[in-house]
Amino acid sequence: MAQDDFDLQDFLPYLLNQAAEASSLEFQKVYKDRYGMLRTEWRVLFHLGIYGRMSAREIGRRSKMHKTKISRAVQKLAERRFLTRTTDDNNRRMEWLDLTAQGQKAYRDLRAIAMRYDAGLSEKLTDRENAVLRQALRKLAQGG
Amino acid sequence: MAQDDFDLQDFLPYLLNQAAEASSLEFQKVYKDRYGMLRTEWRVLFHLGIYGRMSAREIGRRSKMHKTKISRAVQKLAERRFLTRTTDDNNRRMEWLDLTAQGQKAYRDLRAIAMRYDAGLSEKLTDRENAVLRQALRKLAQGG
DNA sequence: CGTTGTTAGTTACAAAATCAACCGTTAACT
DNA sequence: AGTTAACGGTTGATTTTGTAACTAACAACG
Fold this sequence. Notes:
The structure is a homodimer of 144-residue chains. Chain A is mainly α and 144 residues long. Chain A has one domain (17-141): Arc Repressor Mutant, subunit A. Chain A is built from 6 helices and 2 strands; from the N terminus they run H-H-H-H-E-E-H-H. Chain A has helices at 12-35, 39-51, 56-63, 67-79, 101-122, 127-141, and strands spanning 83-87, 95-99. Chain A is globular, with a radius of gyration of 18 Å. Chain A starts with 11 loop residues before the first helix and ends with a helix. The structure holds a DNA duplex (30 and 30 nucleotides).
């Protein structure tokens, strides 16, 4: 009984959010239940796993997460021995973050799950939809 | 200096989230600064504005928001006289939610902004990308 | 040097989301 | 009717996030 020609399902910010939430749900269960991680935490883990050692600032630049979120995620990951922090000698404000062996292991485990999970999502879409979707999302993610 | 063939930018849950966040940012500013609303609140407002009178439960079913979020959003919107609540005579557990004149006005104002904003986002994409994107997102949003 | 500004990261406090337990009402079954 | 379960919605405690103000280290400029 629509009273209106505007449709929430066509409003991109809403639609994107619905899709994002629906499609993170199962993966969230894994990193949460199996590793007790938060979204921020697996993101930091993945940045280090994929790109190798970097600083918190650099993770922020790439992920657009706020520095306080990252700071707290790093703290927790360090407590749990998933990463180590080493202050840089030339610039003692910054720290290099490295995954420990344990961190690498968790990363590889989660990565495998992520890949399978992503493949499962892709199956819901045609090849063309997959290609165009990812392309379009990248444009939108850039912001501006 | 990737060490890895897995790319975060190809992982749909991540990519969707990046796009969702980037694309809600400016709209958020509007409903927050102009109406002091939370995301949950404009969503409730929009559901009532678009589809007309309904119960909190029905909003939850459609939006997949948790009932506590909705309950609190409804409270705030009622306090601010954007909607009224009427308990159903045949089932006194439930309430019918209706926008007040003031609520309708806020809705129409925000809807106009949303439409312009959505149009702006669409301009970043080709027609084909727009069509395929929305189609694909709807599939993903359904979950399962 | 000394002041001022910037950067990398942390902390404290307020705002919001989550989770479980809770009411009052209705439905289902005996 | 009497008991139990389910429903629609609320509340309170805890967790997580967001915002601002804060270190400590460095850089730039006089």
